[in-house]
Amino acid sequence: MIQQIAFIATLAAAVYFISRRVSGIRKNIGLGKNTFRTDQPQVRLRNMMLVAFGQKKMFKKFIPAILHLFIYVGFVVINLEVLEFVIDGLAGTHRIFAPYLGGFYGVLMNIFEFLAVAVLLSCVFFLIRRNILKVKRFWMYEMTKWPRLDANIILFTEIVLMLAILTMNATDQILQQSDPHYAATGKLYFSSMLMPIFDSLPVSTLLFIERFAWWFHIIGILAFAVYVTYSKHLHIFLAFPNTYFAKIEPKGHMNNMPVVTNEVKMMLGLQDATAAPPAEPGRFGAKDINDLPSTSLMGAYSCTECGRCTAECPANLTGKKLSPRKIMMDTRDRMEDVRKSLDKGGPGLQDGKTLLNDYITKEEINACTSCNACVEACPVLINPLEIILELRRYVSMEESGAPSSWNSMYQNIETNFAPWKFSPSDRFNWSKD
Amino acid sequence: MNVPTLAEMTSRGETPEVVFWVGCAGSFDDRYKRVTRSFVSILNAVGIKFAVLGTEETCTGDPARRAGNELLFQMQAMNNIQVLNGYGVKKIVTACPHCFNTLKNEYPELGGNYEVIHHSVFLQQLIESGQIKMTEGGSFKGKKITYHDSCFLGRANNIYEAPRAVLEALDADLVEMKRCRTTGLCCGAGGAQMFKEPEAGRKDINVERTEEALGTGATTIAVACPFCMTMMSDGVKNKEREAEVKVKDIAELIAEAQGLR
Ligand code: SF4
Ligand code: SF4
Fold it and tell me: How far apart are CA A224 and CA A302, in angstroms?
């Protein structure tokens, strides 16, 4: 009974913290301009199934892809077991599904254990890759202490959680021999290898270890679920909507600005001024998160900080300050800072800071060649380029702060209809030489 | 050379099969003007009924848009669309991936709907239909050529194979760089970088890319974009290899193989 009450309290606390975070994240994404489009649902669904569900883009790098696949499948499948945990916890039962599923229960448990071991080994390998082999993209300058720690915490936690499952199953199997409360599962291949460690212990100690491992695992999972909302691991959920709402035009397409179209049409006399009352122009381009498309903001929360984008970025590769991963991380940090301030009753967006300048500098955005390498590389279809281009629009149109050579280029286009200083009447001279 | 303008043709009551959009680089850049003329010589040799806009053409607005000046971009776009729609243009071919991308992907939202083809695809079609006949064992036989993917053709528009098909028709030895197709490294000129000095860094992007191209041992670096042309040519000069290694547009290579120029 005490266990049941404790369980309900734990579950309620987890649900409370998670829902508070989820609502904060939703509000943050909602700060942006609504760009959630649902046209061409077949294409979008296909993208989601291939890229998020099917991990298609991960397979550009085969070994990490396989290991990541283990963790991903393990995560999904082992969560089925959590369902049993929750029912047991609420009802005070133990392995409630075992009697109903009979021999099949043991098969399921063996599958879970296989995945638990696969997850465990993959995480160990990933820790080695990050911290000992020091794969370059995990050590670039935007990978400061916290992002590196975040990744390690996650990997370490997963290892511990998997060990808890195996310990629990090992002690459980010993207890099955004497205690009728412990339903028979049949031999569990991996955890039975651990049984010799616990064999000689008294039943009371075994009971304690089994219970401890059970609680450790379930609290661990719930704590993990709360933690995920603060971490780059949010991609495990957001990869799905993010791939669904990702841009489906060719990558070369830049989003149109209908406000500008109205203005230009009026200037050219293509539209009589009385017809359409010009929409409140607002800010041209983006200075802060609320000027960005909401899909970009969701992208920032979906970013796994894997750095595949930055590893392909020609500007970054040649030593420029620009890193597309940092663009996404900065956007997210800005959202989190604004939310923290609002939660404390602070000024939020009006805190005197802005995404442009205080987080992302002009030097960074000016270095971008709009080559789309980052967009192509991202395993969850995030588009850092979109943010860069929106920031540039703000700098050019609201601040007239573009680099001077760009301003001369603008001038040339305006007066000579070409980006260079040539007379428009000479445009056809190539046919004469 | 015979280059009919759309205005002349229209006044004669004729319509071209296709309008050749020359672009600013194709019109003004000395190096790329040679590409423009090569392409025209191919069109003439094949007997394609084409026209250019001549002095009626203006910048598509691509560099302005990428640098952030949407207002200027849309002014340019609207003006161009008015001219193109005024002539009832249906089909456009261009040798510039930036013009191609803008005309194809960005003009429709502003009222300009055309079938837009990049010259690499156009040339591929001419070769496949037999309108351009390549003789085996031509002057390129056995020569090492590497193709540098233009970002605005490749990743931006998924055109990877057409330029390669054109090069293969030369019967040359096509060698790939490690970073090619979807992972092709930019030449450094896109996103209006062409019109400013690069930001501070360790190295220039075009030098990094040129080193990779030279590393293949190719004596010809084939490109399909005026900005790539400039960047790669500068890179080759930077490495002082311009005597042995040539940077050429795919249209120039075809024209050469056909003995057209
Ligand atoms: S589009 Fe810009 S940020 Fe992305 S890889 Fe290319 S240069 Fe880097
Ligand atoms: S944007 Fe995509 S590729 Fe870049 S770090 Fe984030 S998840 Fe990785």
Answer: 17
| A158-175 confidence digits (pLDDT tens) | 999 999 999 999 999 999
The nearest CA of chain A is from the CA of B114 a distance in Å of 15
In eight-state DSSP terms, residue B87 is T
Q: Does the beta-carbon distance from B106 to A254 stay under 8 Å?
A: yes
Q: Using the mean position of ligand 1's atoms as its centre, give its distance from the Cα of residue A351 in Å.
A: 30
Domains in chain A, number: 2
pLDDT attached to residue B261: 65
Are residue A180 and residue A316 in the same domain, yes or no? no
Distance, CA of B204 to CA of B36 (rounded, Å): 28
- The structural domains of chain B, with segments of one domain joined by +, span 6-124, 134-257
Q: Provide the mean pLDDT of chain A.
A: 94
3-state secondary structure of B47: coil
Q: Tell if the CB–CB gap between A366 and B199 is shorter than 8 Å.
A: yes
Give the per-residue pLDDT at B64.
98
Q: Please indicate, yes or no, whether residues A323 and A214 belong to a single structural domain of this protein.
A: no
CA distance A61 to A68: 11
In A, minimum Cα distance to B71 occurs at A260
Residue to probe by mutation, ligand 2, list A247, A298, A328, most atoms within 8 Å of CB:
A328
Residues in contact with ligand 2 (CB, 6 Å cut-off): A 303-309, 324-325, 328, 377-378, 380, 382, 384
Same domain, A254 and A324: yes
Which ligand is the nearest neighbour of the Cα of A383? Answer: 2
User: Mean pLDDT across the stretch A91-102?
Assistant: 91
Regarding pTM above 0.90, the answer is: yes
Q: What is the CATH number of the domain that holds A254?
A: 1.10.1060
Domain housing A256: 249-270+283-406
Is the same domain home to A226 and A128? yes
CA-closest candidate to residue A55, choices A70, A38, A43: A70
Number of neighbours of residue B220 by Cβ within 10 angstroms: 21
The per-residue pLDDT for B139 is 81
For domain B6-124, which CATH number applies: 1.20.120, 1.10.357, 3.40.50, 3.90.226? 3.40.50
Check if CATH label 3.30.450 holds for domain B134-257. Answer: no
Q: How confident is the model at residue B138 (pLDDT cuts 50, 70, 90)?
A: confident
The answer to whether A310 and A374 are in contact (CB under 8 A) is yes
| ipTM exceeding cut-off 0.85 for this assembly | yes
Please tell me the distance between residue B16's alpha carbon and the centre of ligand 1 in angstroms.
39
Please tell me if the CB atom of residue A322 comes closer than 6 angstroms to any atom of ligand 1: yes
